[in-house]
Amino acid sequence: MDTRMSQLSKYELEMLVTKLNEQKRKAEQHGNMSEVEVIIRKIAIAQSYLVDTSRFETGRFYRIDGEEPRFELHFVNGVMGWGHFEGTVNEVAIPLALIREEEE
């Protein structure tokens, strides 16, 4: 049985990210883009376990990698930041590793 990411040490998470990046590279070489997308999501989740959650403030706007509209953070639950994008009302969960400080 596989160990959950939440049970891994920092070192083990870093090793997992390295392994996943290698898998992603191989999937890209074989042109398997759907597998690449799944691996990218796994990497984001694994990296989110390495993020210091205390750096996030509810009610603030952040940038999300690969997204144009800003993201307003409502709350953090585990390794996910919950909130909504500007111009929308639907609440979504974003892995913390993808949430960036808004550049002034």
TrEMBL record:
Name of the protein in its database record: DUF1811 family protein
InterPro entries: YfhH, YfhH-like
Lineage: Bacteria, Bacillati, Bacillota, Bacilli, Bacillales
Species in which this protein is naturally found: Exiguobacterium antarcticum
Taxonomic superkingdom: Bacteria
Matching Pfam families: DUF1811 (PF08838)
